[in-house]
Amino acid sequence: MPLPGIRATFIWVALGCLGLILTALYMQHMMDMHPCPLCITQRVFVILVGLVALVAALHMPAQTGRRLYASLGGLFAIIGGGVSARHVWIQNLPEDQVPACGPGLEYMFETFPIMEALALLFQGDGNCADVVWSFLGLSIPAWTLVAFAGLLAINVWQGLRRSA
């Protein structure tokens, strides 16, 4: 028995997010590309979009629930896309305007109050300006921005569509 279209779409979103995270982990562990604070933040939002889609697929909600899940997934995609856009912006700054390298992620969360640590995390630092890999002229954060745009589009479509 085939899955209803709405449920299948949520499953595909969850699988797409899983693929993004597995790619990031492969690049980190097999290609020795260590993520900067903004990269880690983007990963968190990819995971959140994927988890919302997975819960929606398992729950198989009616129209109101589907719209709620799609809105939440879309919100996480917008926030993640904003982080990606900031990262791309930092990567394209002139060298003399790149922010100084900041403390490590672990140090930030151990030393600063949570809101201050989060503010520092979203700011990015000099490590975030390095372009360590690109494909078709786009860096990893630029591809992540494209992925968030796609995830947002799918969630908007899920929220607006009428039936399976």
From TrEMBL:
The keyword Cell membrane applies. Its main location: membrane. Keywords: Cell inner membrane, Cell membrane, Chaperone, Disulfide bond, Electron transport, Membrane, Oxidoreductase, Redox-active center, Transmembrane, Transmembrane helix, Transport. GO terms for biological process: protein folding. Residues 27-44 are periplasmic. It is found in: Cell inner membrane. This is Disulfide bond formation protein B. The gene is dsbB.
